Backbone:
């Protein structure tokens, strides 16, 4: 049975993007948030993103209306009961995720596949909280979801091989390029990306170069779309700090240890673009200015 009815839990940055691409692919999507204002905020961001596509001419206005028609917001978890797959994109807290999966396990029929968009929490640990670890995978999207082509599909030792392939095919149907991987904290991208981002903070902390010169080096020397410190501000310093800590805990390798400057910035609430400041000050978002950090 192809996946047609998609449930998404969490309508933040990632959840709203996932709901959007699933609806764009023709699926019926129900997105659940804990309060209606979060549903509204998520739908606003979907509207903005679809608006960009219409403006560029990549999407017709009638197609946009059909996509809108396939999207439904709710605050009731029970509304996800007829989903073929439920994709969870809530906050990165193991206990909150486990609690959610226990509730979903009661609500959804045994055939429903559960997928987590976590970037670092063990898929196995969440899967065993349910009675269906064989129908549980990781499905890791990248920010901004409508733009980034990659999706990591993660299997655990308990994932059924046919379910795994079904989810790989679903990711391809969303217009994404799926890669297959296994349940090791950070999967492929963050295993490579996080040490690089942390090293960029160390280079700044060691006084090797300025914020702008570090960013320009990787943009102009290696063709990256964003320098590492700009990317840290984009992803969120708190998010990266939390991923790094989980990875350090798992592998006990110093390359995953968050540098003191990153910790200080998170303590100060300078979490990047969403907080208005991080490595740059976004008072004028069109012209971010490097912050003084020593
Ligand atoms: N929805 C729809 N379209 C969007 C969009 C959105 N939310 N955001 C950007 N776009 C489109 C724009 O309309 C534009 O389309 P066009 O080329 O057809 O005109 C295109 O994307 C480029 O956008 P902009 O011109 O506004 O800006 P940039 O050229 O600076 O690109 C960027 C923005 C796509 C974010 C680019 O800078 C980039 O690729 N940055 C790197 C992002 C990255 O590395 N993401 C992964 C983070 S790691 C992660 O998510 C994992 C987690 O676990 C930490």
Residues:
């Amino acid at each position: 049975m192809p996946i047609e009815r998609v449930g998404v839990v969490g309508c933040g940055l990632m959840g709203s993007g996932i709901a959007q691409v699933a609806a764009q692919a023709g699926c019926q999507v129900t997105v659940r948030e804990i309060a209606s204002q979060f549903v509204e905020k998520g739908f606003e961001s979907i509207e903005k993103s679809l608006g960009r596509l219409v403006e560029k001419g990549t999407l017709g206005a009638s197609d946009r209306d059909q996509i809108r028609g396939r999207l439904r917001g709710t605050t009731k978890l029970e509304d996800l009961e007829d989903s073929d797959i439920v994709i969870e994109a809530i906050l990165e807290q193991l206990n909150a995720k486990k609690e959610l999966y226990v509730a979903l396990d009661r609500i959804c029929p045994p055939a429903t596949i559960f997928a987590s968009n976590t970037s670092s929490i063990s898929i196995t640990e969440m899967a065993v909280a349910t009675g269906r670890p064989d129908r549980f995978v990781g499905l890791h999207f990248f920010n901004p979801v409508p733009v980034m082509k990659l999706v990591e599909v993660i299997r655990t030792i308990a994932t059924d091989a046919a379910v795994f392939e079904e989810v790989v095919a679903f990711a391809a149907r969303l217009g994404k390029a799926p890669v297959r991987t296994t349940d090791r904290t950070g999967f492929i991208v963050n295993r490579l990306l996080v040490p690089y981002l942390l090293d960029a903070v160390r280079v700044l902390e060691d006084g090797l170069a300025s914020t702008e010169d570090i960013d320009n080096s990787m943009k102009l020397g290696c063709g990256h779309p964003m320098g590492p410190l700009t990317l840290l501000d984009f992803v969120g310093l708190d998010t990266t700090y939390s991923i790094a800590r989980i990875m350090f805990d798992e592998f006990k390798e110093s390359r995953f240890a968050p540098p003191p400057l990153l910790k200080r910035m998170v303590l100060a609430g300078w979490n990047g673009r969403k907080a208005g400041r991080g490595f740059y000050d976004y008072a004028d978002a069109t012209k971010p200015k490097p912050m003084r950090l020593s």
